[in-house]
Amino acid sequence: MAKEKGKKALKDFKTIEKIKKNQDKLEEKIDKLKNVKNTQVLSAFVTFETKAQRDLVYSHYQKSPLARCCFAIGCCSFKKDANYLQGKYLKVTAATDPSNIIWENMNYGSLNKFLRRLISWGITIALWIISNYNFNDFLIL
User: Fold this and answer.
1) What's the chain's Rg over C-alpha atoms?
2) How far is it, in rounded angstroms, from Cα 105 to Cα 117?
3) Which of 95, 111, 94 is nearest to 103 (CA)?
4) Which of 16, 38, 87, 92 could pair with 61 as two cysteines, CB 3.0-4.6 Å apart?
5) CB distance 90 to 83 below 8 Å
6) Model confidence at 4, in pLDDT bands (50, 70, 90)?
7) Amino acid 38: pLDDT
8) CA angle 61-64-66, nearest 5°?
């Protein structure tokens, strides 16, 4: 009987040692991930079970433009709170219908989107000008 208890204790000891080794490996991975630089979260989608939960979070994260400006300038003794992550303001907006989201475009930055819109508007205005131009002035009869 003592032999069985000894075998069980040895087995339990080996299991504990194995778990400690795995824990050490996981802690090393966590430390490596903490030291990673240039990680950016561009956007996140959060769902709520009730409308009341959504409204509570939405109201907590909404700040006036004046409050955001004062924080950026550093006046009015605005302090960092949950609305700021790594010195950046967290913008919270209601999500659009998921069918309207083009998931492939999520990786494009603000500058890229701005330039695309600028080019699109430029082409639209050029086409509008051309379509409204009076070509009859140049026709020789």
Assistant:
1) 30
2) 14
3) 95
4) 92
5) yes
6) confident
7) 63
8) 135
How do residues 32-41 score in pLDDT, each as one tens digit?
A: 877 776 666 6
Backbone angles phi, psi at 42, to 5 degrees: -85, -40
CA–CA separation, 58 and 114 (whole Å): 27
End-to-end CA distance of the chain: 119
Encode pLDDT of 42-100 as tens digits: 677 788 888 888 888 877 777 667 766 776 666 665 555 656 666 666 777 777 777 77
Token pair for 79: 């302090």
**HSE-CB of 133 using CA atoms within 13 angstroms:** 9
Q: In angstroms, rounded to a whole number, what is the distance separating the alpha carbons of residues 110 and 131? A: 31
The values of phi and psi at residue 70, to 5°, are -60, -35
Length of the chain: 141
pTM here is 0.34
- Which residues neighbour 45 within 8 Å (Cβ) at sequence distance 6 or greater? 95
